[in-house]
Design brief:
Low-confidence stretches: none
Mean pLDDT: 80
Number of domains: 2
Strand content: 5-15%
Number of helices: 10
Length: about 270
């Protein structure tokens, strides 16, 4: 079957290098396939795909050279490619690149999303000890924010080398992923976080797609939920009491109560 495909400009140097290698391998032999395998006695065969048999042969040949590599299955190669494509170009482009539907990409090759979640959670665990403060412990020079306190205003720094949301002093979600952010295990900050979650949940319902939800709301909600879980470890009864007040009775923090009124006026909540 004749297949037509488009390659990016960035890929062209690699393609040209491969074509030069193919020309050297084929020499003057009559071969009309793009991808070839050279067997014993310089026999040319078409590459039938990244099958387990081909991978076994590849690992075996590398082994004879003293190169021992971890075994990676064909599905893992595809998942890794999908991961890279999702991270760099988004799910829609990734689905087209992989040759399957968007639904298949999200259902069967969701390693990119899973990897992002694990990276976020690792960052959360690494920073939680210094992020959650005891009630009444206000570091010198700290200022109050909509979700807690900031110990170094206008000096944002990410909680890890790779985070979904970049820290930004001009946005609440940026605060949550900043190394300068702190939250107290007291009623005030717990109410702030619960109020923030309440408002974000209302707005997130207007996301037009899974990708839009993830990029705009998913990471922030997971971060808030993680911090609330840590606060529950300190005082589960207090968190439960305030959560009931916020979710059932609408007793939001003053800042978020005003924000909610604005959302209703704009018709986005």
């Amino acid at each position: 079957m004749e297949v037509t495909f488009t390659v990016s400009l960035a890929f062209m140097p690699k393609l040209k290098a491969y074509l030069a290698l193919r020309k050297y391998l084929v020499q003057d032999a009559d071969c009309d396939t793009l991808f070839v395998v050279v067997g014993h006695h310089a026999q040319l065969r078409r590459l039938t795909g990244l099958s387990s048999q081909f991978l076994d042969r590849l690992y075996s040949r590398l082994g004879t050279l003293g190169i021992v590599l971890p075994r990676i299955s064909a599905r893992q190669w595809r998942a890794a490619k999908q991961d890279w494509a999702v991270s760099n170009h988004g799910p829609v482009v990734a689905a087209r690149l992989m040759g399957h539907s968007l639904a298949t990409a999200l259902r069967s090759y969701s390693n990119g999303t899973d990897t992002a979640h694990k990276a976020e959670m690792g960052a959360f665990l690494a920073s939680v000890e210094k992020t959650v403060l005891k009630a009444g412990n206000y570091p010198a020079g700290s200022i109050r924010s909509a979700v807690g306190v900031c110990i170094e205003f206008h000096k944002p720094a990410p909680i890890a080398a790779s985070v979904t949301v970049q820290p930004d002093c001009r946005s609440t979600e940026g605060c949550l992923f900043c190394d300068q952010y702190r939250v107290h295990a007291d009623a005030t900050d717990i109410r702030k976080l619960l109020s923030c979650r309440h408002c974000v949940r209302l707005v997130s319902g207007r996301a037009g797609s899974f990708e839009q939800y993830e990029s705009s709301f998913g990471a922030a909600l997971r971060r808030v939920d993680f911090l609330l879980d840590e606060l529950r470890k300190r005082d589960a009864a207090l968190v439960g009491q305030i959560e009931h007040g916020v979710e059932i009775n609408g007793n939001l923090d003053a800042f978020w109560s005003t924000k909610l009124d604005q959302l209703y006026e704009l018709g986005v909540a």
